[in-house]
C-alpha cells in the first residue's frame, strides 16, 4: 500500500479529486464519492505501471492566481520548462 496525496475542487456540477503522486483524477457528486472513485482509479493505474510511476510529495500548498484568458490573445511567457506532472517552471 502507498499513501496518496490529492486535491479536491469543484468543476461545474462535479467534485474533482486529483492525485498529486500520479497523473490520475476522478470525480463524483460529493467529496466522498470523488475520493472513493480516485482511490479506485489509482489502484487500477498501479495495476499496469511499475513502482517508478509513483512520486512521493510533501509540503502541499494550494494557491489560486489570476492569469490572462483566451480573450486577451496568446500570453507571452519568459523562459520556462515543463515540470513532472504537467506544471510549468520559470
Q: Pick out the low-confidence regions.
A: none
**What is the typical, i.e. mean, pLDDT?**
83
**Biggest sheet architecture:** 3 strands, antiparallel
What order do the helices and strands follow? Answer: EEEHEE
The tally of strands reads: 5
Report how far apart the termini are: 35 Å
Radius of gyration: 16 Å
> Helix amount, in percent?
10-25%
Question: Helix- and strand-based class?
Answer: alpha+beta
Widest beta sheet: strand line-up: 1-2-3
Strand content: 15-25%
Topology at a glance:
Blueprint: E1 6-11, E2 14-19, E3 25-28, H1 31-47, E4 81-82, E5 88-89
Antiparallel strand pairs: 1-2, 2-3, 4-5
Describe this structure in words.
The chain has one helix at 31-47; strands at residues 6-11, 14-19, 25-28, 81-82, 88-89. The chain is of the alpha+beta class. It has a domain at 1-59. A hairpin with a 2-residue loop joins β1 and β2. The longest helix is centred in the middle third of the chain and has 17 residues, at 31-47. The radius of gyration is 16 Å and the shape is globular. The N and C termini lie far apart (35 Å). The mean pLDDT is 83.
In short:
This protein is of the alpha+beta class and 90 residues long. It is 19% helix and 22% strand.
What key attributes describe this structure?
90 residues, alpha+beta, three-stranded antiparallel sheet, 1 helix, 5 strands, globular
Amino acid at each position: 500500500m502507498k499513501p496518496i496525496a490529492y486535491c479536491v475542487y469543484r468543476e461545474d456540477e462535479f467534485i474533482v479529486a486529483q492525485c498529486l503522486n500520479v497523473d490520475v483524477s476522478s470525480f463524483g457528486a460529493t467529496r466522498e464519492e470523488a475520493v472513493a472513485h480516485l482511490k479506485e482509479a489509482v489502484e487500477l493505474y498501479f495495476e499496469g505501471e511499475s513502482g517508478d510511476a509513483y512520486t512521493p510529495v510533501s509540503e502541499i500548498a494550494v494557491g489560486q492566481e489570476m492569469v490572462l484568458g483566451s480573450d486577451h490573445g496568446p500570453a507571452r511567457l519568459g523562459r520556462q520548462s515543463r515540470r513532472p506532472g504537467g506544471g510549468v517552471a520559470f
